Amino acid sequence: MSETVLDPVVPRFSIIVPVFRVQGFLRECMDSVLAQDFTDFEVIAVDDCSPDRSGAILDEYAARDERVEVLHLPENVGLGLARNAGLEKVRGEYVLFLDSDDTLVPGALGALAERLDTTGSPEILIFDYARTYWDSSVRRNLLADRLDEAGAPSFTLAERPEILDLLQIVWNKAYRRDFIEEHGFTFPVGYYEDAPWTFCTLITARSIAVLDRVCLHYRQRRQGGNILRTTSRKHFDVFDQYDRVFAYLDAHPELSRWRPHMFRKMIDHYLTVLDKPGRLPQNATAEFFHRAARDYRRRLPAGFVRPAGVAGGKYALLAKDAYPALAGLKVAGKVQRTVRKHAGKKVRQAKKKAMDLRYQALLRQPLDENLAVYSAYWNRLPACNPLAIYEKAKELAPHVHGVWVVKQQLVDSGEIPAGVDHVVLNSPRYWEVMARAKYLVNNVNFADGVVKREGQVHLQTHHGTPLKSMGVDQKRYPAAAKGMSFRKLLARADRWDYSLSSNQHTTEQWERVYPCNFESLDAGYPRNDVYYRASAQDVLDIRERLGVAPGKTAVLYAPTMRDYQVGYVPRLDLEKISRELGEDFVLLVRTHYFYDQDTRLQELQERGAIIDVSGHPVVEELCLAADALVTDYSSIMFDYANLDRPIINYTDDWDTYVRSRGVTFDLLSGKPGDTPGVLATTEDELIDAFRSGRWDDERATELRAAFRARFCQWDDGHAAERVVRRVFLGQETAPEPLPQEERTVAPAPAPRPPRPAW
Asked: Which residue ranges does the record annotate as region Disordered (predicted)?
């Protein structure tokens, strides 16, 4: 289909997008709309006073695309009233509703426009959708056969009443705006707000058409974001919604033929709420049933015939208000389900026997409110964000005793710092502290056998800003996943109470790829606090300990691992690089911590070509010592950017890396905010970057500033304080991140050397 021209007065479509707490999914939603090849539309995005940064994301899109208008509501009003706010602004010929965690499929708007043309501009066009799941599976609507396009191009509901069997939702339909305005349709407050709108519009419409094509992907949130998975008395709102449906029928006698249909939909809906576990509080189920029974009796149409089978039996129980009988029926069903699962339970019970009985006993003891357990990098030495939090907690929350989980070999080698209380992994005391500690802090996940108790607080600090794909995104990259069980991964993430982030990009990624119910803690990375607190003397002392001679320009080379390779494979001829850069430069080489010590690096160090710092325990010290960073795709670049020193990316295998691992943005785009400085794809380009001075010229400085603004968003030297005050002290207020222009970063080791006369 050819592109259409945007009509500045009356666009073909007005797309209303209500937004609340969806920052992890919102960009995908908006991109799916703005990337449509049919361009004659406007987007009315309604920020329903979202407490996260969804509103700011919408403003970004509005600034880039004039078709986007953003309404910021002063208070949270709920989905229905947010849609009403959007309706007040629409100008389009047709109105579409799109929930902000769902997406349009490519070509959807063009297909809708074409079908509207061929069906004579009906008042309602119904199209199909597919459910999408966290594991990337897609399942089309099971009632897709109701959308058969054979027959008359448009019809009334009386001609095809089976349309009522479709899910009562608004976002799988295009509504002609003059039809909405003629009848004054609006959304009510409360849960199940789609029901009155859907039923009242369908029974009123004089012309309906269908499109047998999936135009929308309906995201099935694994946790959160869906009222149907929320235990609440708000589910009683369903009674108010059907009061509205029948009030509409009372006001329109000409529609009385639809009473039996609406009665059936009402009772089916009530029974669904009753049948689905977890919707109603246990002490409210009987009350809900009696309310449903009352509606049954007072709205029962004359001559109504109950459905056959089990459903008909439930109708009969409602008619008699026989709650005990329904409860017995549900218990019988539960017993049947239990029998079916019995074989699987035997396997799980066998595994449970392996759990230490002492641990089970410890799990029944009271929590120690003043005990915190720390771990970093799969129980290596104290490091990273957990270590920075541990140190700050000793200052601000000294009543909380910290214990580190470490491997036995670290104890045997005497590497544990003096004065650090620690437990050996899987030792008796390990299971004791894991069972009783109030706080659990880690930059990876604790083992599957660790039980998250009610009352425990789990802080996941992570250990880097994600350039590479993480979480459920790895499912698309087998080389990265390596047989990973994503269900187990998400079960571990289900234990998180807080997920720490240093920038908005990271927050959005974590919320999307770990679809769990944690709270994003946008505080900055505590490990980066040192970059704003170290003095010039601190920097010189670190360089002296590392063996960097005075006056030398130290270049830290820190590549990441490759999922598609086994073991450490050097990507640079380090001896050549060192020789070509000359005596004024020194290379500090650090391999990824996944790799064992490399004998080739030791040989180069013995010859004086490099300094091998792979075993240095504190990477932040290496960054402070370095005048420049050479890396590839390692997250060290995001941390190093805090220092406002040159970054050079050596990206000789970018295409392979992207195909094997996947990335969250285009590092090589050259756009401000994406690329931190100079890019090199060959050794000669890397050498020339230093020889020519491009590594630290005006262009590199500009790129570095934009990169720093994007990814060092909340790092200002006070991240650890914010975390400790929020998690350990329960304080809602904490020091707000300083504006970047007010931050004082650690000084560079020395003035940049003059450009050599090569």
From this structure: 731-758
Q: Which token pair is 236? A: 């009683």
β-pairing, 124-132 with 138-140?
A: antiparallel
Helix axes 194-204, 259-275, angle to 10 degrees: 160
In a 13 Å sphere around the CA of 700, the CA atoms on its Cβ side amount to 21
Could you give the 3-state DSSP secondary structure of residue 378?
coil
Q: Which spans in 437-573 are helix H?
A: 478-481, 486-493, 504-513, 536-546
Distance in angstroms (rounded) separating the CA atoms of residues 393 and 725: 9
Q: Record the tokens describing residue 507, joined without a space.
A: 């927050």
Q: Tens of pLDDT along 104-113?
A: 999 999 999 9
Farthest-apart Cα atoms in the chain, separation: 99
Strands (E), 462-531: 498-501, 519-522
Strand-pair category, 138-140 with 208-219: unpaired
pLDDT band at 758 (very low <50, low <70, confident <90, very high): very low
CB atoms within 10 A of CB 228: 13
Token duo for residue 17: 């997008």
CB-based contacts of 71, cutoff 8 Å, min separation 6: 44, 45, 46, 47, 85, 86, 89
Residue 227, classified by CB atoms within 10 Å of its CB into exposed (0-12), middle (13-18) or buried (19+), is middle
For residue 519 the two structure tokens come to: 């709270």
CA Rg value for the chain: 31
Instruction: List, in order, residues 6 or more apart from 447 with CB less than 8 Å away.
Output: none
Q: How far is CA 571 from CA 103, 652, 682, in A?
A: 40, 8, 10
pLDDT of residue 635: 96
Q: CA-CA distance, 21 to 49, in Å (whole number)? A: 9
DSSP class of residue 155 equals B
What interhelical angle do 574-581 and 683-692 show, nearest 10?
20
Is the CB of residue 163 less than 8 Å from the CB of residue 156?
no
> What DSSP string describes 424-443?
ETTSHHHHHHHHHEEEEEES
Q: Which residue in 544, 604, 597, 539 sits closest to 568, CA to CA?
A: 597
**Cα distance between residue 62 and residue 497, in whole Å:** 33
How many Cβ atoms sit within 10 Å of the Cβ of residue 674? Answer: 15
* C-alpha span between 495 and 198 (Å, rounded): 38
Q: What is the pTM of this model?
A: 0.87
Tokens describing residue 34:
């703005």
CA terminus-to-terminus distance, the chain: 58
Distance CA 228, CA 210 (A): 27
The CB density around residue 708, as the number of other CB atoms within 10 Å, is 23
Three-state DSSP at 480 gives: helix
Yes or no: say if 528 and 486 are a contact pair by the CB < 8 Å rule: no
Regarding predicted confidence, which is higher, 567 or 105?
A: 105
The two three-digit tokens of residue 253, written as one number: 């006698």
Instruction: Give the span between the Cα atoms of 3 and 9, in whole angstroms.
Output: 18
Contact at 8 Å (CB) between 7 and 42? no
